[in-house]
Amino acid sequence: MRKLQRTSPVSVLAFAVAGIAVGLLTQLVRSARGAPPLVPPVSLAATLVVIAAVLLVLAVMLRRAVTRASRRAVNPFHAVRLLAGARAAQYAGALFGGFAGGLALQLLTRSVMPSAETWAPMLLVLGAALILVVCGVIAELLCRVPPVDPDADGEEGEPEPGSGVPTERPV
Q1: What is the pLDDT of residue 153?
Q2: Number of H helices and number of E strands within the chain?
Q3: What pLDDT, on the 0 to 100 scale, is given for residue 6?
Q4: Are 121 and 103 in contact, with CB atoms under 8 Å apart?
Q5: How does 102-119 read in b/e, with b if 16+ C-beta sit within 10 Å?
Q6: Which residues neighbour 13 within 8 Å (Cβ) at sequence distance 6 or greater?
């Protein structure tokens, strides 16, 4: 089975560059048609921050369940889903951040700087997307489960209690 690796920073950077290109081209097309600049809603920034917070809380809860010396097993599907969410958050954050950066970058090329109502939401989305990427990286690190050492708890050859392996009972 293939070992899971961390998300490559190069792939996250590629998503950011793609977002910058799309944002820049969107503003250029709107400017060429005489339309006003595209301004992302402030609710987008708030939504990205809420998603980042939920992801981080779930990752911390999973990490506590893994490191706690409890008898309850952690559902591996929950951990894999959370890991997939952390990776998706990194990619989505890079894409949204790049898009907002591309929108703002085109505004810097104008001879007259637009008002704060135009560029402030772009910077808010850029900051929220950066928060989402950072929380995705942290959540991915927290989802790493330490390898199970079979010789750590019991004697050699003795199965763990509750493992489903029948054991001999003295009569």
Answers
A1: 52
A2: 4, 0
A3: 83
A4: no
A5: bbbebbeeeeeeeeeebb
A6: 94
Residues in the chain, pLDDT under 70: 1-4, 69-71, 145-171
Identify the helix (H) or strand (E) that includes residue 116.
Answer: helix 116-142
pLDDT at 76: 82
Joined together, the tokens standing for residue 157 give 């050859």
Per-residue tokens: 112? 């007259």
| pLDDT number for residue 145 | 64
Distances in whole angstroms, Cα of residue 65 to Cα of each of 141, 143, 159: 15, 11, 22
Per-residue b or e along 7-46, where b marks 16 or more CB atoms closer than 10 Å to that residue's CB: beeeebeebbeebbeebbebbeeebeeeeebbbbeeebbe
